[in-house]
């Protein structure tokens, strides 16, 4: 029992590896620092308290770690490029990793339960959870939080709290337009020549309308079909390029970002799930705003914590700083929102003891 009492978790979300705004180098430096905790723990000041950051027993990767939706230049090779080093560094850290998928890495959810890739050299595991960690109990339909110290914690990415995302989720089960266009765009020929292909496609359309139909008032069926196939080929090899390169702009304007935990919870979307989560603390990411909110319910209080992001830089909203490069540290003494300031400097933003 004693070993269960002394536990340390590190929670990271919304790194968006592959995205142009991802703080890739900072994230790698941070992981190297986490690896270093194995040899020596770090003592930092949090208000008037001293906290010892120990080497973690578990790392929770809380969604949107990879950006499969919106990679730089829509090119998925940028994800592969960005992923190499962080995952190599993660492997070196001597603890199990829990990967809870978010909306930007939603398709990884298909890997849940597909076991044999996940044991690393050091005997540690990386386990994928499609929705949340821990899973719901099949009988009661309830999810019981993980006990760390005297509090229990429940982890989910948080797009489940986001109205737009929740509607999308239903559609996405059958057809996910963002992924679909990304798939079509990431065909090498399309990726390389979509602009030229689009010019050819337009050219063919114009030809079709103004010249060919007049020359051949009644073209036979097979002529028509092969003509349609040629136009179709260039359409298919160019339109995904246009969609993939504009959806980033559209997506950015509808981003769920920059909402504090209070705003998310007061939006009432959480209500739906509330009876099924049996935990003192609900941890999520998604909005890129490391913050907290305490909700008073009929049964008591529930604390909501947001793990923030590793994208962009610190921004101020209505006098509140939204930090970049944030993580949560949880141990038997409490929960802490922290920010990586570079070169091993950690700043504590909020403490819950
Ligand atoms: Mn998200």
UniProtKB/TrEMBL annotation:
<feature type="domain" description="Calcineurin-like phosphoesterase">
    <location>
        <begin position="10"/>
        <end position="288"/>
    </location>
</feature>
<dbReference type="InterPro" id="IPR004843">
    <property type="entry name" value="Calcineurin-like_PHP"/>
</dbReference>
<keyword id="KW-0479">Metal-binding</keyword>
<dbReference type="GO" id="GO:0008758">
    <property type="term" value="F:UDP-2,3-diacylglucosamine hydrolase activity"/>
</dbReference>
<keyword id="KW-0997">Cell inner membrane</keyword>
<keyword id="KW-1003">Cell membrane</keyword>
<keyword id="KW-0812">Transmembrane</keyword>
<keyword id="KW-0472">Membrane</keyword>
<feature type="transmembrane region" description="Helical">
    <location>
        <begin position="225"/>
        <end position="245"/>
    </location>
</feature>
<dbReference type="GO" id="GO:0009245">
    <property type="term" value="P:lipid A biosynthetic process"/>
</dbReference>
<dbReference type="GO" id="GO:0016020">
    <property type="term" value="C:membrane"/>
</dbReference>
<dbReference type="Pfam" id="PF00149">
    <property type="entry name" value="Metallophos"/>
</dbReference>
<protein>
    <recommendedName>
        <fullName>Calcineurin-like phosphoesterase domain-containing protein</fullName>
    </recommendedName>
</protein>
<dbReference type="InterPro" id="IPR043461">
    <property type="entry name" value="LpxH-like"/>
</dbReference>
<keyword id="KW-0464">Manganese</keyword>
<keyword id="KW-1133">Transmembrane helix</keyword>
<dbReference type="GO" id="GO:0046872">
    <property type="term" value="F:metal ion binding"/>
</dbReference>
<dbReference type="InterPro" id="IPR029052">
    <property type="entry name" value="Metallo-depent_PP-like"/>
</dbReference>
<feature type="transmembrane region" description="Helical">
    <location>
        <begin position="196"/>
        <end position="213"/>
    </location>
</feature>
């Amino acid at each position: 029992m004693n070993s269960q009492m002394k536990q340390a978790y590190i929670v990271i979300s919304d790194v968006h590896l592959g995205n142009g705004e991802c703080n890739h180098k900072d994230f790698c430096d941070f992981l190297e620092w986490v690896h270093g905790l194995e040899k020596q723990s770090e003592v930092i000041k949090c208000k008037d308290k001293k906290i010892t950051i120990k080497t973690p027993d578990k790392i929770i990767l809380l969604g949107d770690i990879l950006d499969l939706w919106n990679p730089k230049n829509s090119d998925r090779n940028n994800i592969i490029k960005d992923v190499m080093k962080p995952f190599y560094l993660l492997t070196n850290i001597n603890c199990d990793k829990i990967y809870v998928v978010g909306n930007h890495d939603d398709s990884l959810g298909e890997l849940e339960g597909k076991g044999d890739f996940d044991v690393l050299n050091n005997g540690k595991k990386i386990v994928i959870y499609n929705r949340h960690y821990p899973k719901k109990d099949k009988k009661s339909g309830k999810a019981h939080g993980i006990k760390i110290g005297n509090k229990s914690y429940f982890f989910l990415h948080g797009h489940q709290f986001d109205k737009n995302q929740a509607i999308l989720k239903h559609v996405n089960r059958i057809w996910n337009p963002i992924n679909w266009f990304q798939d079509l765009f990431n065909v090498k020929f399309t990726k390389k020549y979509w602009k030229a292909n689009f010019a050819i496609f337009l050219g063919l359309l114009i030809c079709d309308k103004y010249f060919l139909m007049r020359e051949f008032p009644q073209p036979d069926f097979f002529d028509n079909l092969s003509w349609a196939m040629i136009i179709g080929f260039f359409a298919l090899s160019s339109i995904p390029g246009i969609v993939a390169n504009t959806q980033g702009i559209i997506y950015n304007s509808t981003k769920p970002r920059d909402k504090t935990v209070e705003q998310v919870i007061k939006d009432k979307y959480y209500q739906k799930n509330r009876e099924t989560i049996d935990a003192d603390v609900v941890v999520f990411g998604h909005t890129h705003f490391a913050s907290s909110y305490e909700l008073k319910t009929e049964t008591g209080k529930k604390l909501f914590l947001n793990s923030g992001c590793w994208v962009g830089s610190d921004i101020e909203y209505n006098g509140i700083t939204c930090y970049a490069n944030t993580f949560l540290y949880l141990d038997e003494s409490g929960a802490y929102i922290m920010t990586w300031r570079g070169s091993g400097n950690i700043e504590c933003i909020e403490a819950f003891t």
